[in-house]
From TrEMBL:
The lineage of its organism: Eukaryota, Fungi, Dikarya, Ascomycota, Pezizomycotina. Residues 280-313, 321-340 are annotated as: Disordered. PROSITE patterns: WLM. Residues 120-324 form the WLM domain. It comes from the Eukaryota. Pfam families: WLM. One of its GO terms (molecular function) is proteasome binding. Residues 297-308 have a biased composition (Low complexity). This is Zinc metalloproteinase-like protein.
Length: 340
């Protein structure tokens, strides 16, 4: 813009700041470039003038004699850096180029996680209970099926069956009323039955009133007893040794603790029961002809037959002989069945 003495005032912005220089009326774009280099220390080579409606002007200018008067009323923006700034940027670029490339972090090899023990799974599918069958005519057969499934999936039972290579075609429940006998000696309840050396195993799951289920660990212990009958029929020393071994294996492999019910409070947690068939009446066990709560009469014909056996084994043997006598009175026992 021209003043009264015909000088020009040129205003431009640099990095957001406004600058105004005064030139003679005949000054050119070259004069402006020289003034910027002298005053702001921006070399001519680093200068770029953005002029509205005209475009970009930079050295070497296409028209170095362009009159400043022609652009004095236009908006002018100067882009450029001082020699020091340009040198700093260049030095930083050189240093960056000379730095060694950043090493990538070493990727650790991911080891394959062993999710399956194929041998164990194959053995568990082979040494197991092939079929589970509740009694469909009793109340809530689905609950009995869940109970049988729990026994089949029990980690202790699975471990014992794998070790001894037991395969049982059928695991089922027994009807309590069909395996309960009452006489002057008391009430006898059969807790388990093994038919034909492990072809079928029956377990007494329900309470006598059919309104719940017996203690899980007691039934599992009965199952251990019946599995021992897969190898040994009579309750002799070999049988009891194997029975105790299976019980220890099952308990040792069972990492779970406590029992749970099959639907709230319906699981039966009565007094502790013996594994073999002995009856109870009024909460007391009746194990022989000598009265409730004891074994005054064991049914053994000679004391020598009890040598080497524990009290529990003696009581079981006495109860077995008593059931045998009762069965013979009814027409003879099933020679292919082993009872607990």
């Amino acid at each position: 813009m021209a003043t009264d003495n015909q000088d020009l005032s040129i205003t431009f912005t640099l990095h957001g700041a406004s600058h105004t220089f005064t030139f003679p009326a005949d000054a050119t774009i070259t004069d402006l470039s020289d003034k910027v280099a002298e005053t702001l220390a921006i070399p001519t080579a680093n200068q770029k003038f953005m002029v509205s409606k005209l475009g970009l002007l930079k050295a070497p200018f296409k028209d170095p004699e362009l009159a400043l008067a022609s652009i004095a009323d236009k908006r002018i923006t100067l882009m450029g850096s001082t020699a020091a700034e340009a040198s700093s940027v260049s030095l930083a670029a050189v240093e960056a180029a000379q730095r060694p490339p950043r090493s990538r972090p070493v990727q650790q090899k991911v080891k394959a996680y062993k999710t399956h023990d194929w041998k164990k799974e194959q053995e568990e599918s082979q040494y197991t209970f092939t079929t589970l069958r509740p009694l469909p005519y009793l109340p809530n057969p689905q609950r009995s099926l869940q109970f049988l499934q729990r026994l089949k999936d029990d980690v202790g039972i699975k471990a014992a069956m794998r070790k001894h290579k037991f395969t049982v075609p059928l695991l089922t429940e027994m009807n309590p009323i069909e395996h309960t006998q009452s006489n002057h000696e008391g009430t006898s309840r059969t807790l388990g039955l093994n038919r034909n050396a492990g072809e079928v195993i029956e377990l007494r799951l329900r309470t006598d009133a059919y309104d719940g289920y017996r203690d899980y660990k007691t039934i599992r212990k009965t199952l251990c007893h019946e599995l021992a009958h897969n190898v040994h029929g009579p309750h002799d020393r070999n049988f009891w040794d194997l029975c105790k071994q299976i019980e220890k294996e099952v308990e040792g492999a069972d990492w779970k603790s406590g029992g749970h019910s099959l639907g709230g409070d319906e699981e039966y947690y009565g007094g502790e029961e013996v594994d073999d068939h002995g009856g109870w009446e009024g909460g007391e066990f009746v194990l022989g002809a000598g009265g409730q709560g004891g074994a005054a009469s064991t049914g053994t014909s000679s004391g020598t037959q009890s040598q080497g056996l524990s009290r529990r084994e003696i009581l079981a043997k006495a109860a077995e002989e008593r059931i045998k006598r009762l069965s013979e009175q009814d027409g003879g026992p099933d020679s292919g069945s082993r009872r607990v």
